[in-house]
Amino acid sequence: MMKKAWDGYVNFAWGSNELRPQSKGPHNPDVLGTIPMGASIIDGMDTLYIMGMDQEFEAATTWVKNALAFDKQPSLTFF
């Protein structure tokens, strides 16, 4: 199940915060900030590692090294 979910995210929303599974598109909700920061990538890395999904983990690691940036000004929701 993890493999199928991860592949969907990779194919349709890579780098975005979330995948909208029905529309097969990216989603960057206000609660996570409106800028795509790969929240699903970061959140899923420990699971990928524990499950032995080595290729997927390496792709996630590469994305973090090359694309994750904290110099953007997102719109955040504080509740």
TrEMBL record:
Pathway(s) served: Protein modification; protein glycosylation
Q: Which domain of life is it from?
A: Eukaryota
Q: Which InterPro entries match?
A: 6hp_glycosidase-like_sf, Glyco_hydro_47, Glycosyl_Hydrolase_47, Seven-hairpin_glycosidases
Q: What is its EC number?
A: 3.2.1.-
Q: Which GO terms describe its cellular component?
A: endoplasmic reticulum; Golgi membrane
- MF-aspect GO terms: calcium ion binding; mannosyl-oligosaccharide 1,2-alpha-mannosidase activity
Q: Write the record's keywords in alphabetical order, separated by commas.
A: Disulfide bond, Glycosidase, Hydrolase
Q: State the Pfam families in the record.
A: Glyco_hydro_47
Q: Which cofactor does it need?
A: Ca(2+)
What is the top EC class of this enzyme, as a single word?
hydrolase
Question: Which GO BP annotation is one of this protein's?
Answer: carbohydrate metabolic process
What is the similarity comment for this entry? Belongs to the glycosyl hydrolase 47 family.
Descriptive protein name: alpha-1,2-Mannosidase
Organism from which the protein derives: Protopolystoma xenopodis
